[in-house]
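Instructor's aside before we start: the two examples that follow are unrelated to each other. I chose them only because their records fit on one page, so don't look for a connection. First example below.
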Amino acid sequence: MSNEQSFDPLFGFRQLSGMWEKQLNGLIYNLADNKEFVHTANLGLNTYSRYLEQLRKNQEFIAALMNIPTKKDVANAAKLSIQAEEKIDILEEQIWNLQESVSSISKDNVRMFEEVVTIVMQMKNEFQKVSQEMSEIHNIKAELSALKNLIGKEEEQQKKESKKVQDKELVLTGSNTPK
């Protein structure tokens, strides 16, 4: 049993491809060493590259006439799409930052407005107290004015009475004098 070998179906193919590879490498090496072959290959490559360039231009021209996107158009669209996504990401980040700053500002504004409302309410209460005190002061002023008028009238009456009394005394004193 040890003398039995397993059958490998690819063994012959590997040997044949190995021989072909060696022969082609030798041929290419010999041809690459030949200046005429290198010159001819160079001319062929230049012609082939000009032919491919002309073919590409014709394809783009025909695609433009038929309104069909070319490989270049698709690549440009993909590039623009990627740039747009990057810009959208940047804008989203800026919007998030703005939302955060606006929310913090609005919280600060709410606190400030609450403080303003409490101050206004305090001022309103103080104003009501002051207006009550002012109305009391006006009442007191009116009472004082009325009292002043009353005192003034009494003084006038007293002056009139004292004048009458003086007149009577003058008349009385004048009647006691000898003629």
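Example two begins here.
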Amino acid sequence: MATIQHVQRVWTNFLKKEGFDAYALSGLKLVSVSKGTCLAELEVAPHHLNRLGGCHGGLLSTIVDVGGTLAIAADGMHATGISTDISVSFVSGAKLGDKLSINSRCHKIGGSLAYTDVEIAVEDKVVALGRHTKFVRLAHKLNAQQKLDGEA
């Protein structure tokens, strides 16, 4: 299966759970995927704004969480682990209607931990930079045992 199809299946499974990710990021679109990297886009909608009319920091943190997860999926995993650490640096703002470009990279998947980083930008302006570490030891076992919905 092509990498982009695999990552799309992982993301579709997230959306099917109808949790916070599905609510906050329902408009997320995958643009391109290669081994360990994922480029996605999201248009800032009214429910993404803080009380001052800017893009909410909680949304940007969620994007780092999901972006790192999709980068791990782009490295061939469908079970992607449990977050152990997320850090986000808020560099500049984004406003209603801006198209966020989300560039996620998985640097390493070890036996226990996976390390990712995510850059969120609007055009050539960096909005936020994040790092995301996930515990993947149990995910390795799940990946060996299970298939994604729709896989043969």
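The first strand starts at residue 29 and ends at 34.
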